[in-house]
TrEMBL record:
This is NADP-dependent succinic semialdehyde dehydrogenase. The lineage of its organism: Bacteria, Pseudomonadati, Rhodothermota, Rhodothermia, Rhodothermales. Residues 4-449 form the Aldehyde dehydrogenase domain. Belongs to the aldehyde dehydrogenase family. Keywords: NADP, Oxidoreductase. One of its GO terms (molecular function) is aldehyde dehydrogenase [NAD(P)+] activity. InterPro entries: Ald_DH/histidinol_DH, Ald_DH_C, Ald_DH_CS_CYS, Ald_DH_N, Aldehyde_DH_dom, ALDH_GabD1-like, GABD/Sad-like. The keyword Transcription regulation does not apply. The keyword NADP applies. PANTHER family: SUCCINATE SEMIALDEHYDE DEHYDROGENASE [NAD(P)+] SAD. Pfam families: Aldedh.
C-alpha cells in the first residue's frame, strides 16, 4: 500500500489504495469517452476553463505550497512559487494554443493544401516527485488545450498532490475524464501504455525508467517524450562577474533542495579564477540555512532516506576517486532526511562526481585550462539537458553556448524552464520537447489535407 511520508519529520501522512485492474480499465474508458467530446470543443471554451484553473492555482498557491512541502520537503516559498508558475503556463496556453494549432496553408499545385493539427488522444503521464505540480502541468496544460486528455501516474511520494490536481481540473469546469490521477503500479503502467486507448506517453524520471517506458512505447508504436535528468555544466570563464556567478551558482545548485534535473551540478572553472571562485563558493554554501521547510530556510530535507543514502554513497566514492570534500559530505544526526550543502573540489573526469548525476545539494568543482577546455569538459558527459556559461563578453558566451551539446544553454543566467521556450534534452537526458509551440505539438497529428 503506497504511503506518503513527511521528509522533515519522517511521519506518515496518508495511505493510498492501488487501483485495481478494473479501476484502470474504467479510467481508460473515461479518458476515451472524454476525448471524443473534448477534442470537438472550441478553443475559446477550453481557454475559459484553463484560465479558471489558473485562477484556482494562484488563489490557492499558499495551500498548494504547503501540500507540496509536506509531501516532498522543498522550502515553502519555492513551493508557493511553483503553484504560481503552473498558473502562468495555464494562461500561456490559454492565450496561444489556438494560434499554435491553426491550419498552415502550403503552396502546392492543389486548389488548396494545408497542414491541420489534431490531438492524438489520451496521454499517459508518468511524473516524478521533485516538482509535483509543475512537472504535471508542463504536459497537462498544452495537452488539454490541444483537445487531448491526460491520465497522471504520479510518484508515490506526492500522491496527495496528484489527487489535488485532478480536483482542480474538475473545479475549473473540465469534464470528467479530461484529467485523471491514478495510483497504479509499474506493471499496470506498462499495461496502459500497451492499451489502444492510450495514444501517447510522457515521462520525467530516471534513465532506467526512461529506457523502460521508451521501449514499451516503441513496441506499441506510440510517440513518447522523455526527460531523464542531467549533469548540467556551470561554466565560469576568467572574465566572468564572479559576484554574480557565485551567487547564482549557489542558487542553481541548491534550488529545490538540490533535487532538480536542471540544477547546476558540474562547476567548470577556468584556471585563472578557479581558486577565488572556489573560496567564495564554499563560503556561500556554508552560510546556507538548513531546517524545517515550512520556515524561512534555504534547504529542507531530501525526499526520503533512500535518496539521502544514495547521495552519501556517491560522495564517498567521489572522495575515494580523489575529490576533496571542501564542506559538508556527511549525514547529520536527528530526525528528517536532511543533507548538508556539500562542495567537492579537485573533481576530474572519471570521478562519480563528474560522470553521474548527483540529485542533491552537492556541487562538483572542476578546473579547465581555458575556454576551449571548459567546453570540452562540459561536453564530456552522456547527459545533455541544460547548462550555463558565465562571461562578460556576451558574444563569446553565445559562441560557446552553441558549442555545448545540450537542450538549453543560458549565458549569464542559471538554467530554468519558461513557458515560451522549448524544454528537453539530448543523449541520456531524453528526447522530445515540452513547453512553447514545440510542447503543444508533441502529441498532435500534423495531418496533410489536399483539396482539388
Amino acid at each position: 500500500m503506497p504511503t506518503t511520508v513527511n521528509p522533515a519529520t519522517e511521519a506518515e501522512i496518508a495511505h493510498y489504495e492501488t487501483a485495481s485492474d478494473a479501476d484502470l480499465d474504467a479510467a481508460l474508458d473515461r479518458a476515451a469517452d472524454a476525448f471524443e467530446a473534448h477534442r470537438r470543443s472550441a478553443f475559446g471554451q477550453r481557454a475559459e476553463a484553463m484560465r479558471r484553473l489558473a485562477d484556482l492555482l494562484e488563489d490557492g498557491a499558499d495551500a498548494l505550497g504547503r501540500l507540496m512541502t509536506t509531501e516532498m520537503g522543498k522550502p515553502l516559498d519555492q513551493a508557493v512559487a511553483e503553484a504560481k508558475k503552473c498558473a502562468w503556463v495555464c494562461r500561456y496556453y490559454a492565450e496561444h494554443a489556438e494560434r499554435f494549432l491553426a491550419d498552415e496553408v502550403r503552396e502546392t499545385e492543389a486548389s488548396r493544401s494545408f497542414v491541420a493539427y489534431e490531438p492524438l488522444g489520451p496521454v499517459l503521464a508518468i511524473m516524478p516527485w521533485n516538482f509535483p505540480f509543475w512537472q504535471a502541468f508542463r504536459f497537462a496544460a498544452p495537452t488539454v488545450m490541444a483537445g487531448g486528455v491526460g491520465i497522471l501516474k504520479h510518484a508515490e511520494a506526492v500522491l496527495g498532490c496528484g489527487d489535488r490536481m485532478a480536483e482542480l481540473f474538475a473545479e475549473a469546469g473540465f469534464a470528467e475524464g479530461v484529467f485523471q490521477h491514478l495510483v497504479i503500479d509499474h506493471d499496470q503502467a506498462a499495461d496502459a501504455i500497451a492499451d489502444d486507448r492510450i495514444r501517447a506517453v510522457t515521462l520525467t524520471g530516471s534513465e532506467t525508467a526512461g529506457r523502460a517506458v521508451g521501449k514499451a512505447a516503441g513496441e506499441a508504436l506510440k510517440p513518447s517524450v522523455l526527460e531523464l535528468g542531467g549533469s548540467d555544466a556551470f561554466v565560469v570563464l576568467a572574465d566572468a562577474d564572479l559576484d554574480a556567478a557565485v551567487e547564482t551558482g549557489v542558487t542553481a545548485r541548491v534550488q529545490n533542495n538540490g533535487q532538480s534535473c536542471i540544477a547546476a551540478k558540474r562547476f567548470i572553472l577556468e584556471k585563472p579564477i578557479a581558486e577565488a571562485y572556489t573560496r567564495r563558493f564554499v563560503e556561500r554554501m556554508e552560510a546556507l540555512t538548513v531546517g524545517d521547510p515550512m520556515c524561512d530556510v534555504d534547504l529542507g530535507p531530501l525526499v526520503n532516506g533512500k535518496a539521502r543514502e544514495g547521495i552519501q554513497e556517491q560522495v564517498e566514492r567521489a572522495a575515494e576517486a580523489g575529490a576533496d570534500i571542501l564542506t559538508g559530505g556527511a549525514i547529520p544526526d536527528g530526525t528528517g532526511f536532511y543533507y548538508p550543502p556539500t562542495v567537492l573540489g579537485n573533481v576530474t573526469e572519471g570521478s562519480p562526481a563528474f560522470d553521474e548525476e548527483i540529485f542533491g545539494p552537492v556541487a562538483s568543482l572542476v578546473t579547465a585550462e581555458d575556454a576551449d577546455d571548459a567546453v570540452r569538459l562540459a561536453n564530456a558527459t552522456p547527459f545533455g539537458l541544460g547548462g550555463s556559461v558565465w562571461t562578460r563578453d556576451a558574444a563569446k558566451g553565445e559562441r560557446l553556448a552553441r558549442e555545448i551539446r545540450s537542450g538549453a544553454v543560458f549565458v549569464n543566467e542559471m538554467t530554468k524552464s519558461h513557458p515560451n521556450l522549448p524544454f528537453g534534452g539530448i543523449g541520456v537526458s531524453g528526447y522530445g520537447r515540452e513547453l512553447a509551440r514545440q510542447g503543444i505539438h508533441a502529441f498532435v497529428n500534423a495531418k496533410t489535407i489536399w483539396v482539388d
